[in-house]
Amino acid sequence: SSRIVPRATLATAPNSAKDMQKTLIPSLEGFLKRVDENNTNLGELPTLTPFVVAGKTVGQLKPKFVEHLAQYPDVFSISGPTGPQGRVSLAAKLDGGSVEARTEAVGKVLAALKDKGVITGWRDELYPVTQSFYDQPVLLVERAAATHFGIKAYGIHVNGYVVDGEGRYSLWVARRSKTKPNWPGKLDHIAAGGQPHGLSPRDNVVKECEEEASIPPDLAATAQPVGAISYMTVSATGLKPDVIFCYDIRLPADFVPKPLDGEVEEFQLWPVEKVAHTVAHTTEFKTNCNLVITDFLIRHGFITPEQPGYLTLLARLRAGDCS
Question: Which tens digit of pLDDT belongs to each residue from 248-266?
């Protein structure tokens, strides 16, 4: 039976891992649907205009955002028609200048667009603008503007799980605060966050684990990197070509996460079959969490090659540019 602890709920454990491989979710159709929900509106790609800095195409912009940037000719240069044949770049003096100068000039424009209500959800957090994760950034932009520019953005998600003495798996599930501007009230991982400039993914994992779930740094440091997932969607704001680094942390049976920074309302410990059923049959989880959880289920043998659609699902977990 369940026992209640402050700010968290421990639910009954599932059947053994071996049994669950047979009984978890017979059809993969629901998991494939969740993948599709992360890769939407791609028919709009031909309407987007490349964003080119120092000779590198680092983003793609919706027509309306191109119009906004055209109001700042000292910073942005617009050439050609809107769409793939055109381009948005920086004014020559900035394009040939330093990363710091570009960041400062673009930052002033973004602050003005924030004041106009064009950019919302300001975070005061800088994201690197790059072609791939290991490139040096050509400039830094406010996180809230990343989708407007269609730049590659990265994040970390942590699967916090427990295995009992009989091999039964459970996962800690977070309920996002209803006051969060994005995905309020949705289910989430025990810890997750965007990947800011100047912080390694490993250090970001430790930071987010402590801030979101009160996981001590020494315990958070035991999280294992287990790969990445990627997706691409065109939202109302712009293009999101995102990559998420995935981590697993096996937590002690007596550890109970506690919300710390106000971003999480509560934590619950769910049997793995309840997590899998929720992913496959509902949209209760934040959209990209479904990909990370599906990857977890594959890696731990709860989704197997015997199930039709297995290879398709495996490939589509990295449908975006994973670089």
Answer: 999 999 999 999 888 899 9
**DSSP E strands, the chain:** 3-5, 8-10, 49-53, 56-61, 76-79, 87-90, 126-129, 139-142, 153-163, 169-176, 187-188, 191-194, 224-234, 239-250, 264-271
Cβ neighbors of 183 (< 8 A, separation 6 or more) are 176, 286, 287
pTM: 0.91
Q: Does 117 have pLDDT greater than 70?
A: yes
C-alpha distances in angstroms, 53 versus 29, 75, 113, 157, 289? 41, 12, 20, 30, 32
Residue 10 and residue 2 in contact, taking contact as beta carbons nearer than 8 Å: yes
Rounded-to-integer distance, Cα 277 and Cα 187, Å: 13
Question: Who's near 274: CB < 8 A, 6+ residues apart?
Answer: 11, 14
Q: Is 80 helix (H, G, I), strand (E, B) or coil?
A: coil
